[in-house]
């Protein structure tokens, strides 16, 4: 809501204008000067804010999928997340990346054109080192790739494209195919120098090695998808098949999660002196009656009332009832 001048402020303003302390023409010029903003035609902003937010959401999902894939394949700590989404000329993107780096160029059928994923050599070599049985040590230097390194990196990039395809499923059914693996950005003519591209930067950590993964998407390739990147498209009725698949994936992940389950037999109090004198074979008296149900905790929280027993040759408990959480604890 705009500020409203009081009667005293209005009188003071009229007085200043009448006495010449304030010039109306200068106020008009200042107001016009504030309305003028510089526009760089070489840095044309061709993606709207809604579309940039949609691209950010898609690649946040891509980062989560990639974290899962690399964690399983490298069997070490992997963390990937989106740090920025920028639109800039293709020439400026090429100048911003190292002179020698790892570049994966791939077709994105059914779209007409190619995309580019740039992986910092520090990250690339850390993955190669881990695949070959090392600790995941990175190298920030690339001159030429050996045949073995090229083969390993190509396989890793193909796994990356699988996650990329899955992340874009809600927008388009991509079938990305890797075309080439290059180390010199100057040899990669993806677009004309002044063509706008959107660059999604992913901060990546593998074990103790950190670096960036940059996804370069040309505007001309994404142009036919722009209506689907609007907020209106995202607010439309959900795709039932997609939602069912997402629910299945979540259920599968939850079922595979490990969680601590413990049953409390009872507690007992004793002095430090009595604790020091304990020996093998001593019997501790617990404050739990044999007729009172035991409590089982799941993830550290009380979950079930149980009674002890045996199943075949193993000690077991039988669930009697579920312990309901209080509304205050939820």
From TrEMBL:
Gene3D superfamilies from the UniProt entry: CheC-like, SpoA-like
Ranges in coiled-coil conformation: none
InterPro entries reported for this sequence: CheC-like_sf, Flag_FliM, FliN-like_C, SpoA-like_sf
Flagellar motor switch protein FliN-like C-terminal domain boundaries: 253-323
Topology in the lipid bilayer: Peripheral membrane protein
Annotated family: Belongs to the FliM family.
Full protein name: Flagellar motor switch protein FliM
Provenance organism: Geomicrobium sediminis
